[in-house]
Amino acid sequence: MAQDLDAFRAETREWLEASCPEEMRQPVDGEGDVYWGGRNAEFKNEAQKAWFEACREKGYTVPDWPKEYGGAGLSPAEAKVLRQEMARINARPPLSSFGIWMLGPALLHFGTEGQKQHFLNEIARGEIRWCQGYSEPGSGSDLVSMQTFGEDKGDHWIVNGQKIWTSYADEADWIFCLVRTDKNDKYRGITFMLFDMTNDGVSTKPIKLISGNSPFCETFMDDVKVPKSYGEGIPAYVGEINRGWDVAKYLLGHEREMISGAGNKERSGSLGPKLARNGIDNPVLRAALAEYDIDALAFGCMGEKFLDELKVGKGHPAQPNMMKYAGTELNKQRHELMMSAGGSRALEWESEETSGGTPARSWLRTKANSIEGGTSEVMLNVIAKRILELPGA
Amino acid sequence: MAQDLDAFRAETREWLEASCPEEMRQPVDGEGDVYWGGRNAEFKNEAQKAWFEACREKGYTVPDWPKEYGGAGLSPAEAKVLRQEMARINARPPLSSFGIWMLGPALLHFGTEGQKQHFLNEIARGEIRWCQGYSEPGSGSDLVSMQTFGEDKGDHWIVNGQKIWTSYADEADWIFCLVRTDKNDKYRGITFMLFDMTNDGVSTKPIKLISGNSPFCETFMDDVKVPKSYGEGIPAYVGEINRGWDVAKYLLGHEREMISGAGNKERSGSLGPKLARNGIDNPVLRAALAEYDIDALAFGCMGEKFLDELKVGKGHPAQPNMMKYAGTELNKQRHELMMSAGGSRALEWESEETSGGTPARSWLRTKANSIEGGTSEVMLNVIAKRILELPGA
Amino acid sequence: MPLYLDEDQQMLADTASEFMAEQGGIEKQLRHWRDKGCKDGFGHGLWEQFAEMGFTGMMVDEDHGGLGMGHAEAGIVLEQIGRNLTPSPFLTSSVMAASALDAASDDLKGRWLPGLVEGKSVFAVAVDEGPKHNPQSIKTRAEKSGNGFKLTGAKTFVVQGASADMLVVAARTSGGDADDDGITLFAVPRDAANMTQDPVRLVDSSMASHITFDGVELDGDAVIGDVDGGRAVLNKMLSAGRAGAASEGVGVAGGAFDMTTEYLKQRKQFGKLIGEFQALQHRAAHVYSELEIARATAIKAAQMLDEDAEKADLIVSVAKAKVGKVARLAVQEGVQMHGGIGMTDEYDIGLFMKRDRALHEFLGDHYFHADRVARLSGY
Amino acid sequence: MPLYLDEDQQMLADTASEFMAEQGGIEKQLRHWRDKGCKDGFGHGLWEQFAEMGFTGMMVDEDHGGLGMGHAEAGIVLEQIGRNLTPSPFLTSSVMAASALDAASDDLKGRWLPGLVEGKSVFAVAVDEGPKHNPQSIKTRAEKSGNGFKLTGAKTFVVQGASADMLVVAARTSGGDADDDGITLFAVPRDAANMTQDPVRLVDSSMASHITFDGVELDGDAVIGDVDGGRAVLNKMLSAGRAGAASEGVGVAGGAFDMTTEYLKQRKQFGKLIGEFQALQHRAAHVYSELEIARATAIKAAQMLDEDAEKADLIVSVAKAKVGKVARLAVQEGVQMHGGIGMTDEYDIGLFMKRDRALHEFLGDHYFHADRVARLSGY
Is the dihedral of CA C280, C285, C289, C294 positive or negative? Predict the structure, then answer.
């Protein structure tokens, strides 16, 4: 087993050496360096294209998905080796998408064979770019109160309503979208629909954030016709009709797990040593950094414990909520300190020296960490209820 | 006016010089140095007796009460001069009592002329020591839920129930006590009664605190007969029957104001300079002290503003709740830091070097600051409701 | 002096509050100039209105056409500026530069003060030389040259430097980098040769310059106060600026907090107004408490400067630090309690967070002032 | 090594948990000995039971009758000790002194280890010389004297010093006060002449001694490890103690937290269980989160010591500091949420607060370790 892994590692290292262009071995420096795929995707350069195509051939855009759905069918251990080897050479992800992170896991868990064959392969090959339609203006933390309604017309629905915080909806091809299909049942009246954004009646409007960027949109649905099926064995919804909340909950949990796991690396590293390179003259700031580093390194230990326990199914099922809460609050604090250490230089919004205000914009971006994917307040509610079992929580 | 004050100051200074014995010009060093008065009071020494008697003659045990009730009838400005001059020579208070701090103000506000004549003079002369019967085991923050019941028997009540946190009940002569006299009206069914602790059926049991001291008692009332009147124009209750909650609320407000004002001096002083005398080697502790000193000095400014506004009737009526909250949390933090700076020496519980564990016992005592007289949680509720006018608060 | 506003001050507060809300509001000023990409970051028209209100010269003595008011009154105006996020050169021109010019020769006063009083001139102050405020160390050098001086060095974080008709520049005329003595303050006109400005927009949409002095020739009469004796004037100017920034910070925090409590009374989730949730109530009540304390401290600091009180320096640092911490708390809680929409540029709450960041950094953040509080307290 | 308990460790945890709750509970041990005014502050009977369970010698290697277990296993026992506030010499004897004796000669091991394993002997460690932990500076001197050494100086905060059969004393045999080199560790028997103990009771009812060495004569074979080379042994002993104290602190925090959540589910005010109030729910949930993080850190620190990992020292300090902060939060929230009865000696929650105070101070409080984290990180 360990021997097999060693062989796989050697093989992977060789393949990476041959397939990953030099330009793709640099840290991602802004949105422009990310390849999202989709109908209208353009490669930034030849290297990006070559790297994506090499990975697509190997199934390495989604290495742990089964081969028949476009993946490489790697075992968890092999997938970890691949991740390690890619990290070793700083290889960029060949393809990023909400299809990979969100819809894929939902389909793998709830989808029909037909849906998997059809949609997963599209995602793996980067052909369709997906966006997520969950929140509505009146339904943020209280997601289940959403109102977007699909009227049943026999073989199709007519959908009306508005979604908000749809990431990159203006560049996405398809949307997975929560639609109310029964007004009489709050939880059992939601359907998890999939449809094409080019359908008549779908429009989007980017939301400008305080960071100056617009990664999210408002998405309007005005008499949008959504068929109930896209062919034999390919229903237009995931799971059952009116049972979309189960899928949504599953994905929310998956998202929190991902945030908890994925964010670890940065958040669990100490900050003082990095900032100290430019000198920390103020002893009170130094003390604040030391207190932060304690929290960050301690959270790193927790992250390790969390992942270890996840692997063997230990740990409380609501634990990702705790990780999400602690990790995002920590990340906000991290950027506060980075701004403080950066001083007036870090305040710059447009200068070359700051690559167009990267420190300040990143700092502002982190403020959403404790809001998106469930606010810190919702996380604390969940901990109080499901872990501490406090009354009335 | 200012000239009159100057004359008063000169006169006061002269009187103090002549009347306040040297031994009474030392900081109070523990309970033993406080004279509480009462039937069983004993003076610690001749100096304490002389000082008390000199003040009693001048009305200086309660300088701002009217002369006819045993005070000196000083104006606020004169009272301030007296306070300043006493502070100048470190003069100890000649008499401490809950009669002065609590019952007195209630009687001045709600009492009949007969009650004032009778009870206030007794208090001013240190003849009767009072204790306060408010909380019950099941009624802490939710004081109005108290159950001690007085059954109406015409010219008297038969009182049954249990009070808790009655300060020095085991040494007090009389109690002012909240008693339910109407079970059908929560707020308008409480009477503010006054009665003798030597009555049959009254018993007390000291409560040992985590600091090792026992300043509070449980007080049990078992068929205690309380007459409705102590003579012509001297009812046995303050305010009206069944309207004791008004008196209680007034006193709670007064208590918070007093805590806010009185505690200021210590709490609003910086701590770093004092602790630095023994050296602060650790830069992280130094930073924590600096952060504390900022909070403490800032709170000192607020204390000054609060008192200035109080004098002219400005400021929100619920502001004492905010002062109580902020001041007590600050004081707890102060003692945490004093303990940290004191290190292992400050941990000692019985040693001579710590005067019997004064640092540790004082530290533990401060933990009650944010509980007694209304918890921090109740203060925050009041701020949310009465100042911020948040819904449903 | 009691720590509440007297009658005159209350009138000033009412006037300033009304004026700033009407003329200096976020829509009309901050967003307007920002969205236009204005190179000044503020409106000269509003600055002239400030003059009509008597604000621009409020700290200038009456002999020079001002109102001869103190830090307490300037603080009243600044709190309203903060509350409305009104972009203006008030703090640097009318408080800091005016404080420095108070020590200047009559000639210099006559040259610069009328323009300030009339709202025609804008001044900036050039003190910092690195990304963190550290006025003890001044490396920019002014060497004797003929009848005057030649200025060489670099300054940074010069707020509204490019819009300024005159810059108050702290330079070293003798001694080592961190010496108390040997500092001289200069009034440098905008058109001085060999001065290069590199203006950059900051997170709060204000403009600040990096400035290089590459042998800038200055007449001897550009000196503010005494040669080599500028540290006292500099300190006074910094204290004035810090106390002023504290008052403005109280306004920023107060504005953000009021927006937030309003939102708590409007937004529904889970079938309730979110202001009904006790966890949010307690957090709001805590911010309220801290904010009241911060406000009292800012007022006290201003009063102590006006009274030239002994420990004024200490309390100024306490105020700058306390307000800094509290304003940060208020804007952070503000954005978090607004949830998703708090992250959008459309809502104003994020603008408060941005302004707090820049204002908090200006003239020393709370780390700087905490350290200073410890030093001034002897530990 | 994964960061959860393996099967053997889980068995040990179950055993320790059951044993400590039954034999080491608050009523049976802490309150019992405290109310008796016991001069040891713990029960020798329980110490013998510890031996029967195999705890006393769990870190002693098997050649010397122990179980040869590591810091991870000791941490499991210590968490239960913390949770039950069990007074015992386990941390100082079985973890710290045992760690030092690991470097001792066979003779010395033979003299002291059997008593430890059997629960007959108690050891203490004498490192601190002032009220704040500062092991870099060792002023107690041991001068060569004939075949051995003569010890002069003073130690403080020697926990259970007066009950100890042997004290591990860190002394300087050469060099300046703060030098790394020149430290030697001695095993000083209780009956050594010219050693004066002044035992005092601490806030948590434990006993600690101020000790004076007034020319204490020691044989050469009392030296643990090498003369002048004791710093490494001392550091190892301190790391063992700090990681152990972190594990015990997790237990203290966990015990206090569990008491508190139980109380939230029982106590009614305003017609509701107080655990229904969202403000308390959120605070409890926050403590839970911090506590889980602290526990993970303590486990990691112990594992890294067992693996002799490169950054073990750093993570040990992180663990001691993090646990310190979190345990303090847990006991403070515990007392506050208990309200008035939390202030009474009758309820146990105050005992957790007292124990936290003493344990947090032992071997460096979080200020000490925060500073150390910064230093070890190069800033």
Answer: positive
pLDDT class of B324 with cuts at 50, 70, 90 = very high
Q: Is the pLDDT of residue A261 over 80?
A: no
How far is C-alpha A331 from the chain's CA centre? 16
Q: Are residues A270 and A365 in the same domain?
A: yes
Residue B18 in tokens: 């002549």
The predicted complex's ipTM stands at 0.94
Name the 3-class secondary structure at D182.
coil
Given this model, what pLDDT does residue A132 score?
Answer: 94
Cα Rg, chain C, nearest whole Å = 21
Q: Is A18 on the interface with B (CB under 8 A)?
A: no
Whether B291 and chain A come into contact, CB under 8 Å, resolves to yes
Q: Is B380 on the interface with D (CB under 8 A)?
A: yes
B221 and B289 belong to one structural domain: no
The answer to whether D367 faces chain B, any CB pair under 8 Å, is yes
* CB-based contact, B286 to chain A, within 8 Å: yes
Give the chain C residue nearest B298 (alpha carbons): C297
Q: Which residues of C touch B305 (CB under 8 A)?
A: 3-4, 296, 299-300
Q: What is the pLDDT of residue D218?
A: 96
CATH of C232-376, one of 1.10.3720.10, 1.10.10.10, 3.20.20.80, 1.20.140.10: 1.20.140.10
Q: What is the CATH number of domain C125-228?
A: 2.40.110.10
Please indicate, yes or no, whether residues A140 and A180 belong to a single structural domain of this protein: yes
User: How many domains does the structure of chain B reveal?
Assistant: 3
Among C272, C281, C282, C286, the strongest candidate for a mutation testing the D interface, having the largest count of D CBs within 10 A, is: C282
Count, residues in chain D: 379
Q: How far is CA D146 from CA A221, D143, D150, D222, D328, in A?
A: 96, 10, 9, 14, 49
Active site residues of B: 255
CB contacts < 8 A (A, C):
120
| Phi, psi of A162, deg, nearest 5 | -140, 135
CATH number, residue A368: 1.20.140.10
**The domain that contains B64 carries what CATH number?**
1.10.540
Could you tell me the pTM of the whole model? 0.93
- CA angle, B255 then B258 then B259, to 5°: 85
Q: Can you tell me the mean pLDDT for C156-176?
A: 97
Pick the CATH number of D7-121 from 3.40.50.150, 3.40.50.11540, 1.10.1200.10, 1.10.540.10: 1.10.540.10
Nearest by CB to D343, which of B210, B349, B376? B210
